[in-house]
Amino acid sequence: MNRVIHPIEQESFRRLRARLDTSGFPPLTRAVVERVIHSAADLEYATDLVMDEDDLVRAHAALHAGAPVVADVEMVAAGITRRETVCRLREARSRPGLTRSAHAVRLAYEEVGPGALWVIGCAPTALEELLTLDASPALVIGLPVGFVGAAESKAALRESGLPAVSNVSEKGGSAVAAAALNALLYHPVSTEETL
Questions:
Q1: How far separated are the first and last CA of the chain, in Å rounded?
Q2: Which residues contact 50 (CB under 8 A, 6 or more apart)?
Q3: What is the pLDDT of residue 1?
């Protein structure tokens, strides 16, 4: 099913490209950068985001082959269109040494196992918990926001060597995390990926 793009979205991307030349990015990196910038109206993401095109190619193939998508919070899940997600925050409980978000990650991993795409846009503790699991993710979109632990958790994600989309600064959030996943959902599947 082809996605119908609203004229407002078309104009928004035209203006974005008039203000920022994204033509030098590889295709999936460009798609992620543009969609994240579009979601936040923040051109600084062009230099703040960190990702690897080869990781995105593999994640794109996994996503379109049906790999599960896990969201850390309902707001991330609500922002992901055209795809069902797993979000276990409602069932999660906090206890000493374990935040509710971290517990939700444990519960989601029990449900989906290895090979999922993880989209974390709220809680740094969710990202920290994911890094303790042997999740073998197809991709981790780690874009939690905040002044406490966000930049540090994203740095730990990059140091882990897992395939990831992250950013260096403290900014992030549900909208940008969902946008990064949507960029991969909306990008067409190439014939190379289906071979």
A1: 21
A2: 158, 164, 165, 166, 167, 168
A3: 54
